[in-house]
Design a protein that fits this description.
Aspartate Aminotransferase, domain 2, 5-stranded mixed sheet, 2 domains, about 35% helix, alpha/beta
Length: about 240
C-alpha cells in the first residue's frame, strides 16, 4: 500500500538522528556529551514518586479519564499552577487543555489552524515540531533566524511582506529554547508596533501581544503560537 505523501515532507526527527548518532561506534576514544532532547537525567523527587504510587492504588483511577481532563486537573492543578507561578487565573473550562505533553499540543494546534498553502513562521533555531507539523498540514515553512546581534529575538522587519501576508502562525518561545535568551517588555523585537510607532492592534489583541503587556510576557515562559490577523500581528485569544 502506498504511504501518504505527507510522510515524505521532512527529513526525519532531529532528536532521533542525534540518538542514533550517539549510539554509533566511537572506538572507545570519545565519550559523547549528550546535547539532545534535554530529558532529565536526575531521579524524580520522592514526593512525586510517592504520589504516583498512591494514585495507582485507587481503583477509580484505573479507567479512562474524561476527554477534556478532570475538573481537579483543569481547575486545581493547571489553573492553580498558573495563578501561583504567573499571577493569572485562566478559565479552566475555556483556557485549559489537557494533552499528553507539550508536543501533542503544538502538533494539534497546527492541525486546528493551518491549511494547505498557509505559511507558518518558525524560529531558527527552534523546536523541530513547529516545522514538522506545519509541513504535515501542507503549509510552507518560513524560518525566522534568531541572531546573536539581536539578542536572539525575532526581527519582524526582516520577514518579507508576502510571507507576512500569507502567514497563519508565528511561533515564539521565551525563555528561548535552545538559546536561553530572555524577552523583555522594555526591549520589544524589531518591527513590533510599539517600537515602530505603528498603531497597535485592537484591545483584545493588544492584551495578548507577546511584548505589550506584563501578563503575556509571563506567558512566554511557555512555548506559544501567535496567530497573524492580517494585516497586523496579534496573538490568538
Amino acid at each position: 500500500m502506498k504511504a501518504s505523501s505527507r510522510l515524505h515532507t521532512g527529513d526525519g526527527y532531529l532528536f532521533d538522528y542525534i540518538d542514533k548518532l550517539r549510539a554509533g561506534p566511537t572506538g572507545g576514544a570519545v565519550a559523547p556529551i549528550p546535547l539532545g532532547v534535554g530529558d532529565c537525567d536526575l531521579p524524580r523527587p520522592p514526593l512525586i514518586v510517592a504520589a504516583m504510587q498512591q494514585a495507582v492504588q485507587q481503583p477509580e483511577l484505573h479507567r479512562y479519564p474524561p476527554y477534556e481532563g478532570t475538573p481537579d486537573m483543569r481547575g486545581g492543578a493547571a489553573a492553580g499552577f498558573f495563578q501561583r507561578r504567573f499571577g493569572l487565573r485562566p478559565d479552566p473550562h475555556r483556557q485549559v487543555l489537557v494533552t499528553l505533553g507539550s508536543k501533542e499540543a503544538m502538533a494539534h494546534l497546527a492541525l486546528a489552524y493551518v491549511d494547505p498553502g498557509d505559511v507558518v513562521i518558525v524560529p531558527d533555531p527552534g523546536c523541530p515540531v513547529y516545522a514538522i507539523w506545519a509541513r504535515f498540514c501542507g503549509a510552507e515553512v518560513y524560518r525566522m533566524p534568531l541572531r546573536r546581534e539581536n539578542g536572539f529575538l525575532p526581527d519582524l522587519d526582516a520577514i518579507p511582506a508576502d510571507i507576512a501576508h500569507r502567514a497563519k502562525l508565528l511561533w515564539v518561545c521565551y525563555p528561548n529554547n535552545p538559546t536561553a535568551a530572555l524577552a523583555s517588555p522594555r526591549q520589544p523585537p524589531a518591527g513590533h508596533p510599539r517600537r515602530a510607532g505603528c498603531e497597535k492592534p485592537g484591545r483584545e489583541a493588544a492584551k495578548a501581544s507577546p511584548v505589550s503587556s506584563s501578563m503575556t510576557v509571563r506567558f512566554m515562559e511557555a512555548t506559544r503560537a501567535v496567530a497573524i490577523r492580517r494585516p497586523r500581528w496579534a496573538a490568538d485569544p
